[in-house]
Amino acid sequence: MRVISGDFGGRRLKPVPGMKTRPTTDKIKENIFNIIGPYFDGGLVLDMYAGSGGLSIEAVSRGMDSATLIDKQFAAIKTIKENVEVTKAKDRFEVIKGDSKKIIQMLATKGNKYSMAFFDPPYALQTIEKDLQELIGLNLLTSDAIIICEVSDEVELPEKIGYLNRVREQHYGITKIVIYKGE
């Protein structure tokens, strides 16, 4: 795994040890950023199930201002912190250990609005639609937010969630990427 492009391009990232996470492959990551970017002019990133942090690190490398990465697994948090160290830009990342549903309640009190969000929950724990409705209800997303969801190929997400419209669906074997964009 590596950062593909931008300020941190070429830097190696570690995967989370063990079998509890599924790292996004470099090929899928590159395709995601070819679809949504490839480069950005600022904004905040929210990563609800961050794993190794690779997607958020890539987004910041390509021009997002900063990222908030949430994971409840100790090994993932340790790996994210190590991967953030590789960027030499720690101040652009907020790493939070805990349940994402509880953390977003806390984030709502800060007044931040995220213009990009990544959802790559464990395939067995599919709550993306509910999570997005909660983010909208808490006013945590900008009106033109881009949402990137990585799900099992069998998962069907709706065409519309609140003011977010599904704009792309791409299949990669057993994985499917679904992208939503605000109106």
From TrEMBL:
UniProt KW keywords: Methyltransferase, Transferase
EC number: 2.1.1.171
Stretches for region Disordered: 1-21
Pfam families: Cons_hypoth95 (PF03602)
Keyword Methyltransferase: yes
Molecular function per GO: 16S rRNA (guanine(966)-N(2))-methyltransferase activity; nucleic acid binding
Name by which UniProt lists this protein: 16S rRNA (Guanine(966)-N(2))-methyltransferase
Gene: rsmD
